[in-house]
Structure to design on (351 residues):
């Protein structure tokens, strides 16, 4: 049954949080959004550190917003880990079971199990102040999981680590979460983390969720322009809807006629100002397909296995994500196209 957040509201003088969504049993839901959108406030509400003004929280069918924080069966990993510096690894991990009154035998078995799970079985006697950042993160994860929580909350747990270590540790988090099948809400502002870790992603803005869906659908079929541009790179061009050709919407733009094929186009009528949206990796070098755009290469960025090529066309700028072996020089003319089925259509007046 997981976590159900039902009509939750929290109002401050300059901010209003309104939430209604669920985290399914055993899934990892990545909560993604810019700073100040309400991600951490959401976690604090769920954890019981602050109270909602209205609405309710249910865990596995049981209402929990009326319970104090220590009775909600929730494990938390903070951004700074919040480990106990005077305790060693063993006692940090065992803190939760001891507070819940576990017997010494059960607690010992649980601590040993989790230290093996996070590959720290030989670190039990080591002070946490002598650990690396990555090792501390693993201890924090094991400590949060030790009392067998019904829900795991992770608040940007990898943000303080370097890029290579973040990639390694997110694999560990993913593995541990899968092995234990613990329902998890993972807060991040990192798009790549959300795409890699999330069974689903919830994109948040200004105190509410804009879209919640699988990583693939939310990336390829964003609900609005904010979601599309926040998650990944994007090309956008303004235009006016001219007519329809069967399932295609025909849009007149400054770079020529573009066609969009999707059900969302049914929301618009002839004459409406719209935005055509498509991803850089959906662009192909081809002068014969539909949605052909002619331009000039103005910049290249070599990234090893691929390259980002910036193209100028009649005052508009586009980014193409191309294979490294496709040779293009700055200043050279270029033709590229994008499949109508890979395009999205959004209203020009709002995001």
């Amino acid at each position: 049954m997981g976590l159900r957040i039902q009509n939750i509201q929290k109002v401050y003088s300059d901010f209003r949080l309104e939430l209604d969504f669920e985290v399914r049993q055993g899934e990892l839901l990545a909560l993604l959004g810019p700073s100040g959108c309400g991600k951490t406030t959401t976690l604090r509400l769920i954890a019981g550190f602050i109270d909602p003004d209205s609405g309710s929280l249910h865990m596995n069918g049981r209402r929990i917003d009326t319970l104090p924080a220590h009775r909600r069966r929730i494990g938390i990993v903070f951004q700074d880990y919040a480990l106990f510096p005077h305790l060693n690894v063993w006692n940090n991990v065992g803190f939760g079971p001891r507070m819940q009154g576990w017997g010494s035998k059960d607690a010992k078995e649980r601590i040993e199990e989790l230290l093996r799970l996070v590959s720290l079985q030989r670190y039990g006697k080591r002070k946490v102040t002598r650990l690396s950042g990555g090792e501390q993160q693993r201890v924090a994860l094991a400590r949060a999981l030790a009392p067998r929580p019904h829900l795991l909350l992770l608040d940007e747990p990898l943000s303080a680590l370097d890029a290579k270590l973040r990639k390694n540790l997110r694999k560990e988090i993913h593995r541990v979460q899968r092995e234990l099948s613990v329902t998890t809400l993972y807060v991040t502002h990192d798009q790549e983390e959300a795409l890699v870790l999330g069974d689903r992603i919830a994109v948040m803005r200004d105190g509410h969720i804009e879209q919640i869906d699988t990583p693939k659908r939310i990336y390829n079929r964003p609900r609005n322009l904010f979601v599309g541009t926040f998650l990944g790179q994007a090309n956008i061009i303004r235009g006016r809807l001219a007519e329809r050709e069967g399932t295609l919407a025909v849009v007149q733009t400054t770079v020529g006629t573009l066609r969009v094929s999707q059900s969302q186009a049914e929301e618009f009528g002839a004459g409406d100002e719209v935005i055509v949206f498509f991803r850089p990796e959906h662009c192909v070098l081809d002068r014969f397909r539909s949605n052909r755009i002619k331009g000039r290469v103005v910049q290249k960025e070599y990234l090893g296995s691929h390259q980002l090529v910036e193209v100028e066309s009649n005052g508009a700028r586009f980014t193409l994500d191309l294979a490294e072996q496709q040779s293009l020089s700055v200043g050279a003319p270029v033709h590229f196209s994008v499949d109508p089925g890979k395009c999205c259509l959004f209203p020009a007046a709002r995001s």
